């Protein structure tokens, strides 16, 4: 256990409970400094879906890091990104011609909001209403919290969140027929 100086998200710091210190991980199991083994049931925030220390993933990361570990996309590119983008383009509708890579889910939501609002602004149309699905979660940045469900985790930031229109989550018996009647 650790009396950590780190601000850990979604942690009740006011309870002053010790934060477990993870010393290693393999597959879905985290090992703590005191020897406990804990199942990483959320894949470390949905990042390690194939498990910790997966040999093929570790090897691919090491191989790529030896060639090029990071490059800014502002005016530069690299082969692995180009390959992934071309693969995505092959399955996208022809009208979608670009791929944007983001460093996190919250950032991708922020960028999507900026792109959508910027698109209409650049066309000279004043569209600014955002429609969201009830009970959704998109991250912890201001824009991502704005388009997600409001509650205990974001109540303190309510004055910063922008207004959205909420539609119900689709459920059996709550379907909406397509325009022009049943399909």
Helix content: 25-40%
User: Approximately what portion of the residues adopt beta-strand conformation?
Assistant: 5-15%
Look at the structure and give the mean pLDDT: 90
Number of helices: 5
Principal-axis shape equals globular
Question: Strand order within the widest sheet?
Answer: 1-2-3
Q: How many strands appear in the DSSP assignment?
A: 5
Instruction: Give the radius of gyration.
Output: 21 Å
Encode the helix/strand succession as letters.
EEEHHHHEHE
What is the distance, rounded to the nearest whole angstrom, between the alpha carbons of the first and last residues?
58 Å
User: What ranges have pLDDT less than 50 throughout 5 or more consecutive residues?
Assistant: none
Major β-sheet profile: 3 strands, antiparallel
Given helix and strand content, the structural type is alpha+beta
Q: Can you give a write-up of this model?
A:
The chain has helices spanning 43-46, 55-67, 79-91, 105-122, 142-146, and strands at 22-26, 29-32, 37-39, 131-133, 165-167. It has a three-stranded antiparallel β-sheet with strand order 1-2-3, with no helix packed on it. A two-stranded parallel sheet has the order 4-5. Among the domains are: 7-52, no CATH class; 98-171, no CATH class. The protein starts with 21 loop residues before the first strand and ends in a 16-residue tail after the last strand. Helix 5 links the parallel strand 4 (131-133) and strand 5 (165-167). By secondary structure, the chain is of the alpha+beta class. The protein is built from five helices and five strands. The model has no long low-confidence stretch (mean pLDDT 90).
């Amino acid at each position: 256990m650790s009396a950590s100086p780190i601000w850990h998200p979604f942690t009740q710091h006011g309870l002053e409970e010790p934060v477990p210190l993870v010393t290693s991980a393999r597959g879905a199991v985290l090992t703590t400094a005191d020897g406990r083994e804990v199942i990483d049931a959320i894949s470390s925030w949905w990042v390690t879906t194939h498990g910790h220390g997966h040999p093929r993933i570790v090897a691919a990361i090491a191989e790529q890091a030896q060639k090029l570990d990071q490059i800014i996309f502002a005016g530069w590119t690299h082969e692995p990104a180009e390959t992934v983008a071309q693969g995505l383009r092959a399955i996208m509708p022809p009208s979608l011609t670009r791929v944007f890579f983001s460093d996190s889910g919250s950032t991708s939501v922020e960028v999507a909001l900026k792109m959508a609002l910027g698109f209409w602004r650049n066309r000279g149309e004043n569209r600014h209403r955002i429609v969201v699905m009830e009970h959704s979660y998109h991250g912890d940045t201001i824009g991502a919290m704005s388009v997600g469900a409001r509650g205990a985790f974001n109540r303190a930031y309510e004055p910063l969140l922008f207004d959205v229109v909420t539609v119900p989550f689709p459920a059996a018996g709550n379907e909406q027929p397509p325009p022009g009647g049943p399909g």
